[in-house]
Amino acid sequence: MARKRQAQIVGFLIFVFVFSVSEAFALFLSNRVFVQNIKINVAAFPSIKVFASSDTAFDQDDVEENFGNVDEEDVSSKDGQNRRLAFRFDIPTLPTGVTLVGCSLNLFMNEAPSFESRSHGAYRFTLHENEWGEGAGGPDEAEVGESSWQWYARPDEWATPGGDISDSPIAVAATGLEDEVWQAWDVTADCAPGETRSWLIRDTSEDAPMTRDAEYNLREDGFATAPYLLLTYQVP
Q1: CA–CA separation, 122 vs 76, rounded Å?
Q2: pTM (2 decimals)?
Q3: DSSP label at 63?
Q4: Which one of 29, 71, 90, 158 counts the least CB within 10 Å of its CB?
């Protein structure tokens, strides 16, 4: 039994290495950031980067517009003009004996708020987690199957405009005032191997009297600053 478990774990690590090389090459050829780039720590805790399979933005000031093709977008607090970001990830399954011990959502903040640090929360989707449509974006309103502030997949509407999410964030990050830094949210409690998970990033104090925003890079911006989950595993 011990030998069988050892073989499963070794097989997992070999798969991760081979998958990393082949997927990185596929990413280079396609210039699309939706594959999983695997990075192994040779210590006791292997870590794996899983890139977003879908991301987009929701704009309260333009409830019908889809932003599925943008490469950067704001999380914004402004009365009647709040903006939010949505991310979906496909979490890989685990072999016997391997345990998920950490999961963080990582976003590259291209531009920090101008005047004051803001608190941005990661909220789990409670409805339509697997169904919201990233869409192709463009200057016009969302097309059939695409998402916006109003629709999760037009013509189907969110129960609550702006996304059906938990009342409280699973994690909160302070933006600070420094540009071009990575921000991370500990979403371990929401992660589940073999499942799909979606989170929405929004200001925890929306409807500010004056615009308070920060700009994040989305997967369309390229591999180097693409949104990802950092999964940490314990291998016995």
Answers
A1: 14
A2: 0.82
A3: T
A4: 29
Q: Helix, strand, or coil here: 10?
A: helix
Tell me how far apart the alpha carbons of residues 117 and 20 are, in angstroms, rounded to a whole number: 36
Asked if residues 45 and 101 have their Cβ atoms less than 8 Å apart, the reply is yes
> Using one digit for the tens of pLDDT, what is the confidence trace for 11-59?
544 444 333 333 433 333 333 333 333 333 434 568 999 999 999 999 9
Cα–Cα distance between 78 and 60 in angstroms, integer?
9
The sign one gets for the Cα dihedral 130, 131, 132, 138 is: positive
pLDDT tens, position by position, 56-111: 999 999 999 999 999 999 999 999 999 999 999 999 998 888 999 999 999 999 99
Q: Is 26 exposed, middle or buried (0-12, 13-18, 19+ CB in 10 A)?
A: exposed
Give the Cα separation of 30 and 165 in Å (integer). 33
